[in-house]
Amino acid sequence: MVQEPGAPWWRDAVVYQIYPRSFADGTGDGVGDLSGIRAHLDYLADLGVDAIWLSPIYPSPMADNGYDVSDYCDIDPVFGDLATFDALLAEAHARDIKVLLDWVPNHTSDQHPWFVASRSSRGNPKRDWYYWRDGRDADNPDTAPPNNWRAAFGGIAWTWDEPTQQWYLHNFLPQQPDLNWNHQEVVEAMHATLRFWLDRGVDGFRMDVIHMIGKDPELPDAPPAEANTNRVVFNDYPGTHALLRGIRKVLDSYPGDRTAVGEVNLRDTDRIVTYYGRDDELPLVFNFNSVRIGWDAAEWSALVDEVERYYVGDRWPVWVLSNHDIVRHRTRYGGSEARARAAAVLLLTLRGTPFLYAGEELGLCNAEVPPEQAHDPGGRDGCRAPIPWTADAAHGWTGATPWLPFPPDADRLNATTETGDDKSMLALYRALLRVRRASPALRRGELTRVDAPAGVLRYTRTHNDDSCTVIVNFNHFDVDVPLDNCTVVIDSNHTGNPVYDGRVGAETAVVVRPSVGP
């Protein structure tokens, strides 16, 4: 990783998200695991990523595929054990690849010992570690929940507990009761889970729905405009920021710029950035507005302008096109390979830290998952399909049939086939990452959006004496965008012309820089 003196490593980094169940199977049981990830670290190093983020690998009943944690300080046997994790961490670090873990602070599994104790009686010392409330109707307490909040997976956000005659809050599944971060013992216990992994040497965390940990202790009703939508997209309690400052102190007590990226699933950029604070809150914050817009130059131009307006000073943007919760962007963009190629250029040249979801570099679409093979309560299995490594029928997954079906065209869109094709999507990503790593302008430079023809997004990146121009043509036809004396550094469709002739192909992105010499 090329890093400027005094700069935190994550500003220069490209982070690669791994959904462990679907990345690679090292034990032959059809489920991806830590051994499978270890076996493909050279692939990641050759790709050129700087860090990997692992979706949850903790012990879990898997009601929500690991986001229902029953032990924050161990590894689920399906993925391996602590010794395997330690080996993975050491081998990643030997390749100069950082490792981030997914931390789930808003809720535990209902099988976590904390909740088992909390649920055992109203007088248990851990009762207030979770949100327990009486029903609204004292005469019929089990008929009316404490408030009108809706859960993310549908239905009310409360479950009645018959033995203790109260309701408990769960903003996701009933098997995922919300922790009460208003209780100091919860704060201390969760800080201890961070220290457990920091002591082992992890470089940071992706923090799941981190904006949800702070809640008004009164748990008031959502206003009418929000009453029919899950609480996740509206929860914005001011007290959360003090909790984030406490978490940041834990991170900062360790050397090496240990970092965190927060999943703040709000809609408005001006609210999202309030969770950011290089010195005292979250170093990085996801802004998912990039996955809520389509293949449209005007929408992308407006979003880039909005991000540049709000992410000023030490605020550093994060860009993402796909992840384990979101339909793969190639599928969202109509399955077009050309659009997926141009989007790769966009992702890796905007100002900020890009998060690349495993399989994007192969140009994968969502898999078609029959109902009888579905696992996820939120219907997100399609974007979690196994990564194809080879062209044969097993696609590198030896042993048992993988837990989900493969994405379409896996005989062609796989790592082995694409490695041998210098015009493949994988070749494009590798070239993009090499160019980005070599360019201070693309890693760190200021971004200036430049006027362009209709349907075209154009911006420059500049840092000291390094500069380049990025042009993304969203149109289904070629467009003239004249520039004098420029060399093509990246062409998303591999036309092979090193001299920029002022014409950008349909649904194509190019990166150009001023030519040197006569």
Strand order of the largest sheet: 9-8-7-3-2-1-11-10
Category by helix and strand content = alpha/beta
Identify the CATH class of the largest domain. Answer: Alpha Beta
How many structural units, i.e. domains?
3
Just name the CATH architecture of the largest domain: Alpha-Beta Barrel
Tell me about this structure.
- With 518 residues, this protein is α/β, with parallel strands linked by helices.
- The protein has 3 domains: 13-108 and 184-434, Glycosidases (TIM Barrel, Alpha-Beta Barrel), CATH 3.20.20; 113-169, Oligo-1,6-glucosidase, Domain 2 (Oligo-1,6-glucosidase, domain 2, Alpha-Beta Complex), CATH 3.90.400.10; 446-514, Sandwich (Immunoglobulin-like).
- It is 25% helix and 15% strand.
- It has 15 helices and 18 strands.
- The protein has helices at residues 9-12, 20-23, 34-39, 41-47, 82-94, 113-120, 184-200, 240-252, 269-272, 297-310, 329-332, 337-349, 415-419, 425-438, 440-444, and strands at 15-18, 51-54, 98-103, 132-133, 158-161, 166-169, 204-207, 259-262, 284-285, 318-320, 353-357, 446-450, 456-463, 466-473, 479-480, 486-491, 503-504, 508-514.
- Strands 9-8-7-3-2-1-11-10 form an 8-stranded parallel beta sheet. It has a 5-stranded antiparallel beta sheet with strand order 12-13-14-18-16.
- Strand 8 (259-262), helix 9 (269-272) and strand 9 (284-285) form a beta-alpha-beta unit.
- Helix 7 runs parallel beside helix 8 (240-252).
- The chain starts with 8 loop residues before the first helix and ends with a strand.
- The model has no long low-confidence stretch (mean pLDDT 96).
